[in-house]
Amino acid sequence: MAPVTLIGSPVSPYVRKVLAACAIKGVQVAVDPITPFMGDDGFSRISPLRRIPVWIEGDFVLNDSSVIVQYLEETRTGPSLWPVDPKDRARARWLEEYGDTRLFDVLGWKLFFQIALKPRFFGGETDQAVVAHARDVELPEILDYLESVSPDDGFLFGDQPCVADFAVTAACMNLDAIRVSVDPACWPRFAGLIARVQETPLGAVNRLAGVLMKTPIDQHRAALAEHGLIPAATTLLGAQVRRGPMTAS
């Protein structure tokens, strides 16, 4: 198969989900660490919605993390990214969707964006009302649900992690940057799941994301190499912040 380039910074939990899946499957990729809200006109051509990650394999291009991991499952050998039982596999896909949409809406947009990104990249003020409602009302409801589906030990569907484990925990790793946490006294099973997932391939890219959040953007490519990832030979990273709708998926 052709060499693979993955467009998107590991700061994005969606990119980390794909990188963890690649590690499980033994697939080597070169990474162009475009951060959210950046990317030149070439990025717009390969990602019409201006979303990360983007998978480039020769002249074959895929958008959306869920589509990418399903492609990996169907084209690469190695441990499965999904449970074997059809009912468990269906539930896992639901939890992946829940993590990608509802969880990230609150953790990503209403908390991380408002607190960490909006003031830094857009010169705007944090909407404290949005943050307070997300932190005090929406997030606890989400964590209550995830607590109800989390096991006492192991992973969501047995002894091996799957994409659903990555989807419901990756965004939680951004919480340290905004001083919000999953309290193990309130949500012990889900907090335990997060800790166990940190010992999987997702943990390594989570730790890299923590480094990148504290590193100037122009040094991100060098940081990838220092943490065992391959920087792409060329980049689609534009010089200016794009104030359009680039997101992650």
What does this molecule look like?
The protein is an alpha/beta fold. Helices cover 50% and strands 9% of the residues. It has nine helices and seven strands. The strands form two sheets. The protein has a five-stranded mixed sheet. A two-stranded parallel sheet has the order 3-7. The longest helix is centred in the middle third of the chain and has 36 residues, at 86-121. It is globular, with a radius of gyration of 17 Å.
Shape: globular
Main β-sheet description: 5 strands, mixed
Widest sheet: strand ordering = 5-4-1-2-6
Q: Let me know the number of strands.
A: 7
In N-to-C order, the SSE pattern is EHEHEEEHHHHHHHEE
Separation of the first and last Cα atoms = 25 Å
Q: Indicate the structural class.
A: alpha/beta
Helical proportion? Answer: 40-55%
Radius of gyration using CA atoms only: 17 Å
Strand % is 5-15%
- Report mean pLDDT, rounded to a whole number: 89
Uncertain segments are: 243-247
Q: Given the structure, what is the number of helices?
A: 9
